[in-house]
Amino acid sequence: MCHGARSPVNSIPRQALARYSLTGEALIRERSDAQAERTASRPTGSARWRAGFSLLHPGPSLLVTACFVAAAAAARHRLPDPLTGLRLVAVMLPLQFAIGAFNDLRDQEDDRAGKPGKPLARGAVSPAFAVAASVAGFGVALVMAATFPLPTLPLAGACAAAGTAYDLGLKRGALSWLPFWVGFACLPLTAGAAVGEVSARVVLAAPPLALALALSVQLANALPDIEADRRSGSTGLAVRLDAVWARRLSLGLGGLAALAAVAAAPALAQPVAVVAAGAVPLVGAVLLLAVHPLPRPFPLLAPAVGVLAAVWLLALP
To answer: CATH code at 70?
Structure first.
């Protein structure tokens, strides 16, 4: 090469070299920032466990399980022994966990738009975990139900079928209340069958009371999601009624169920004072929600419904 000739590198203007250098640094920073963001958003071990537990809807699951054990105790008018109590929990709690996980699995696409904080929607747990939780929960529940006398297994299967049908899409139609009714009505029957005490009074009186309570709770549960459900194309009962009428019907049915339970107590040979005491929390919750319409009435209404159901069953002769 001649001394007077310029090398290819030297022939590139210094401004271009500086620009290329800055561009390279920017790319490196961008990749580093993206990697840091992915690392920061990746849940830690404890956060992943909390998210996985949240996927199972622990609050409602524990409430329903407590009502189930109380119903078994009411059927025999005494608490089950510790082993039987654990077996009862092993029927209902995994079943409720499975229904909750399957519900979030089915709704994950809608939740990304309407409820981005839910575990599956934000990627805190994987869909494979939800599938495993659902399969394991249903499996454990039905296997444990088979260890009790008939017809415990078919009735537990009816509870599972109701929850699954709700998750699969029944909640998006006019019959969104039906799985709640089936589940409410089957719960005391399943508990009674498990301890060998299926009362004719429960068979006759539980379904009408369960219908009013199920509609009340289902509408309360759906209230916060009416707008999101409408945007996703859902035509569930709460969406059809709209928020104002859904709230009115929920509270009206809750109050009606409480009053009807007290009014029917003499015909069912129940102590009126005991049933009335059990109805007080529900009546109080209805009145409070009527005066102060909370955006999420379910957490207040559901425990009150559980108290009435448990006391009503315990008051049966």
So the answer is: 1.10.357.140
pTM, two decimal places: 0.74
DSSP codes joined into one string, 128-184? HHHHHHHHHHHHHHHHHHTTSPTTHHHHHHHHHHHHHHHHHTGGGSTTTTHHHHHHH
Q: What is the CA radius of gyration of the chain?
A: 28
Asked if residue 105 belongs to a domain, the reply is yes
Determine the Cα–Cα distance for residues 197 and 185; give it in Å rounded to an integer.
Answer: 16
Q: Is position 274 within any domain? A: yes
Q: Which residues lie closer than 8 Å to 182 by C-beta, 6 or more apart?
A: 158, 159, 161, 162
Q: Which of 275, 276, 260, 280 is nearest to 316 (CA)?
A: 275
Close Cβ partners of 144 (under 8 Å, ≥ 6 residues apart)? 87, 90, 91, 94
Render pLDDT for 123-168 as a digit per residue (tens, 0 to 9).
888 889 889 999 999 999 999 999 999 899 999 999 999 999 998 9
- Per-block mean pLDDT, blocks of 10 residues, the chain (317 long): 50 51 51 46 68 85 90 88 95 95 86 78 85 95 95 95 91 86 91 89 88 93 87 85 94 96 93 96 96 92 91 87
**Per-residue DSSP letter, 13:** -
Full residue range of the structural domain in which residue 150 is found: 48-176
Identify whether 23 is part of a domain: no
Cis peptide before 151 (omega within 30 of 0): yes
Residues 245 and 317 occupy one common structural domain: yes
Give the span between the Cα atoms of 181 and 220, in whole angstroms. Answer: 14
